[in-house]
Amino acid sequence: MNLNQTNDLSNIGYSIALLSLAFILTGSFIANQIVSERDNKTQMRIKMSGSSMMTYMLSKSLTAVIVSILQTAVTAITVALLIGTDIGIPFAAYLVFIGTIGIIFNLFCVLMGIFGKNILTAVYTSFGVWVFTNLLAKVYFNFGTTPDWWEKASLLTPQRWVMICSEMLMKNQSGAYVTFFAAAAAFLILVIVAGYIGMKLRYSEEGTE
Fold this sequence. Notes:
By secondary structure, this protein is mostly helical. Helix 7 packs antiparallel against helix 8 (about 175-209). The chain starts with a helix and ends with a helix. It is built from eight helices and no strands.
């Protein structure tokens, strides 16, 4: 890549770091709602009403998705007005990448709300994962040549796939969108399955209290 493309890729990395933090913060409000409802036995009453735990989880997931879409829309307007749409890759692709990252992180916060014993645990864990995965994905700055294990471990972060696919678009390589959506689907399935298991365990614990 040339110097301009390298700079554009770095700027995309910085924006991912900042915007993913925004998604974590909004996701924390959803996590707080889940923890509060669990403390107030709301989830147990929902179960007694005949609604399934999957329905409850889907309602929280839908909230996370809607919040992510709204945040992405705000990001699109702000970036277009203040910076412009010339960011090195198609602006629509950038919004898709950011929006998908937002959904993943918001759903992760929902997951932390399910597993966390209190809101502080959920928030601290979410923030810790955000910092660690950003460092691992090298979105703050490029460390240069990194060990092979680091490169492989970075593939376990959604941020890294945004960087990889953005670079593919800059190089006019085919398969960028397919690669990204395949990776995103894997992360989403993992979070949803973990959330379902966590909700089931929580209901079991409440049933024995």
